[in-house]
Amino acid sequence: MEEKSKEQESGLVGIYEKYEQIISLGLTGLIAVIVLIAFVRLAVDVYDLLITGMLDPLDHEVFKNIFGMIMTLLIAMEFKHSIIKVLERKNHVVQVKTVLLIALLALARKFIILDVKSLGAGSLAALALCVLSLGIVFWLIREREHRDKQVSSS
């Protein structure tokens, strides 16, 4: 009786793993399409700016727009990469470290496109505290993984 229960459980786990792979594959495809569209739009925008002679990297607005789009692409690609790890079975779920990295990238993007003049000091301090907090948590997780690897190799 107990053996049947374990077989049923492993069958359900196998079905769920296939379901997870299908969803992950679908998400990867959707994100790949979004990245491609965003890349094409970025390329067209940069080309248009070059043709019209408006591309001045020292112009703060141009810099914000272009690098905001580039950071958005990097965030989407990192997110897609974390899903691919699930598909390759390197990880069963998206890792906390990856989520923290994506959050840090999103906040870095926010700082790049931020109009400091229109933002209050409190809001700027809150964003800075978020970056600091995420950075500390990321560092702590990385240090723990490093320690765990040292212990397991000893």
Give the secondary structure arrangement, pairings included:
Elements lengths: L1 H51 L7 H28 L8 H18 L7 H33 L1
Structural description of this entry:
This protein is mostly helical. The chain has one domain (2-153). 84% of the residues lie in helices and 0% in strands. The protein has four helices and no strands. It is extended.
State the helicity in percent bands. Answer: over 70%
How many structural domains in the coordinates?
A: 1
- Helix/strand/pairing class, anyone? mainly alpha
Q: Major sheet, described briefly?
A: none
The rounded distance between the terminal residues' Cα atoms is 42 Å
E-strand count = 0
Order of helices and strands: HHHH
Residue windows where pLDDT falls under 50 for at least 5 positions: none
Mean pLDDT: 82
Helix run count: 4
C-alpha geometry: extended
Condensed summary:
This protein is mainly α and 154 residues long. Helices cover 84% and strands 0% of the residues.
Quick tags:
mainly alpha; extended; P_starv_induced_PsiE-like
